[in-house]
Write a structure and sequence with these properties.
By secondary structure, the chain is an alpha/beta fold. The protein is 36% helix and 14% strand. It has 6 helices and 7 strands; from the N terminus they run βαβαβααβββαβα. It has a 5-stranded parallel beta sheet. It has a two-stranded antiparallel sheet with strand order 5-6. Helix 1 links the parallel strand 1 and strand 2. Helix 1 packs across helix 2.
C-alpha cells in the first residue's frame, strides 16, 4: 500500500512525524492478519506543511515505526525532482541514490512512481507530466531504468490519464526504449 505521509498543518515537522508514526503503529497493531502487507511512504514534493519531502524526514518516520518489516518507501520521480533531487544528470541521480542509501537504505525502496514533472527543479510543485515531456526529460529516466539495483522493484506509471490509455502505452514504450539490457523489457514493448 503506497500512501502520502500527511502534513503537520502548522504543528511543526517533529509533531507531524510523530503523528504519522503513531498512526502507522496503530494500523499495524490493529491489522495483525495483514503482517505481510507493506506500507510504502511516498517521497513528497515538499510543498507547504507536507511531511516527507526528503529522505531524512522519511527516515525519522520509519525510526518511530515499531514493526519496520511493514514499512518502506516509494520514490516518485516528479516529487523527487520538485523536492530538489536533480535526476537529469548522472551526478544528480548518484547524489540522490547516495542520500537514499545513507538515510533509509536502498533495500527500503519498495517501488518507484514514474512521471515527469511540469514544475521546475526544487519548485515544490506536484504536477505530473508524461515521460520525457516535462522538466526531468527522458535522460533522467535512463539512469533509473538501467540501474541494476532496482531489478525486481515495482516501477509504476503515474502520468496523466485518458480514457483509452494510449498515453500509458506510449510512456511505457519510451521507458522501455531506454533499457540497455533488452531482456528486461517485455517482448510486446521492444522496438521492432
Amino acid at each position: 500500500v503506497v500512501l502520502h505521509p500527511g502534513a503537520h498543518v502548522g504543528s511543526g515537522i517533529d509533531a507531524g512525524i510523530a503523528r504519522i508514526a503513531e498512526a502507522l503503529n496503530r494500523i499495524h497493531e490493529e491489522t495483525p492478519e495483514a503482517a505481510d502487507t507493506m506500507t510504502l511512504l511516498e517521497l513528497m514534493a515538499g510543498q507547504g506543511t507536507v511531511v516527507g519531502g526528503n529522505f531524512g524526514e522519511l527516515r525519522q518516520i520509519i525510526e518511530k515505526v515499531e514493526d519496520k518489516t511493514r514499512v518502506g518507501v516509494c520514490v516518485d520521480t516528479c516529487h523527487a525532482f520538485a523536492a530538489g533531487y536533480d535526476l537529469r544528470t548522472p551526478e544528480g541521480y548518484a547524489a540522490m541514490i547516495d542520500e537514499i542509501d545513507r538515510e533509509i537504505g536502498l533495500a527500503t525502496v519498495g517501488c518507484w512512481h514514474f512521471n515527469d514533472s511540469k514544475g521546475k527543479l526544487a519548485s515544490h510543485i506536484d504536477r505530473h507530466e508524461h515521460i520525457g515531456q516535462g522538466e526531468i526529460g527522458i535522460e533522467g529516466f535512463r539512469h533509473i531504468i538501467n540501474d541494476e539495483r532496482w531489478c525486481g522493484i515495482a516501477m509504476l506509471l503515474e502520468t496523466p490519464k485518458e480514457d483509452d490509455l494510449k498515453e500509458d502505452v506510449e510512456n511505457l514504450a519510451r521507458l522501455c526504449s531506454l533499457a540497455v539490457d533488452l531482456d528486461r523489457v517485455p517482448p510486446g514493448l521492444r522496438e521492432p
